[in-house]
């Protein structure tokens, strides 16, 4: 039967009815180990008791009042976010793309408020992904997302990743900011070296540009730090956050210094749902867990354990796995076979992984993953690699070398 859901997703024939920690149970009763976390969202696993209690407790009190009134849990969450980061102010959104929209608008308005409305262009980097709104597809610059949707939103200049000369050449009198993910997630788990981030910061400072970091995928613990920028020693002016901040409840945030946000006065931006009491209660509950003193140390340790085991996996299966990359619990396997073949083979072994650009498979386990679950996931990846190797062998037998 033809589905009445718009066919914009290539969905697997699989659905789930419950989840518990790193595990999901499908509607036909099978258990799957979840190393995708709903694309870096369920960072505290499924059905985390503290998050469930927060959401259920809030649901019995009040759901929505709008931003016409103060939202005390939102003020508390914003205070905690600014207390733990570079930022002075927060704007809450419902998604990552909206967080980036807020960041982009803020950077433009900063210059307009300073008497330079002509400075509206933003430099972005090849391989980027910033969302699916009209502005964020233009920022991401990927033709496959832009084609057919009318004129590309103006104001984004994309440069090749790591090309210093192109970057310097792209800075002009209309440039307002640079926008970059500290690790390109969708682009294939490409880590921006700390020195490159420091160089970008210096370049922004010397040209009066704002540095915007998109930490939608890397943020809220996934890198092993609260935010990935901490590993480079620099601070952004503006930062987009989403995914993990809600643990599965849809929410996002744009964080900024008071200076960068100087143009965002009453009436300049808004959202009906952004910062709604349900989202705020869950966001605070996520921070209760992630900001516990030992939590991020454990993420770092789990990330190292996973990386080590993945390196061993690569050694055992060099024809399948070409490279291991990533930070914390945002890891990628650059494949020597099509990444989607591996995702399918792993799924057949009841392990969920996610394909990314550059023929990479992303591994994004929940941050509460145990060492035993990491070992189990790698056992399943081993089995998936062996399944793929067996198919390769069958093909080679059927088509001996030199055959026409
Ligand atoms: N920015 C980055 C780095 C992302 O990875 C994503 C989503 O994958 C987005 C922005 C868009 O977020 P959303 O899908 O919540 O709009």
Structural overview:
Helix content is 37%, strand content 18%. The protein is of the alpha/beta class and 404 residues long. The strands form 4 sheets. A 7-stranded mixed beta sheet has the order 4-12-11-10-7-5-6, sandwiched between helices. Strands 1-2-3-15 form a 4-stranded mixed beta sheet. Helix 3 packs parallel to helix 9. The chain starts with 15 loop residues before the first strand and ends in a 6-residue tail after the last helix. Bound molecules: pyridoxal-5'-phosphate. The site of pyridoxal-5'-phosphate has 15 residues, from helix 4.
What are the defining features of this structure?
404 residues; alpha/beta; seven-stranded mixed beta sheet; four-stranded mixed beta sheet; 37% helix; 18% strand; globular; binds pyridoxal-5'-phosphate
Quick description:
By secondary structure, the chain is α/β, with parallel strands linked by helices.
Q: Walk across the major sheet and give the strand order.
A: 4-12-11-10-7-5-6
Residue runs with pLDDT of under 50 for 5 or more positions:
none
Helix count equals: 12
Number of strands: 17
Ligands in the model, by name, code or SMILES, are: pyridoxal-5'-phosphate
Structural class: alpha/beta
SSE pattern, N- to C-terminal: EEEHHHEHEHHEHEEEHEEEHHEEHEEEH
The proportion of residues in beta strands is 15-25%
Overall shape: it is globular
Largest sheet: 7 strands, mixed
The Cα radius of gyration reads 22 Å
For the record, give the distance between the C-alpha atoms at the N and C termini, rounded to a whole number: 42 Å
Output mean pLDDT.
97
- Helical percent range? 25-40%
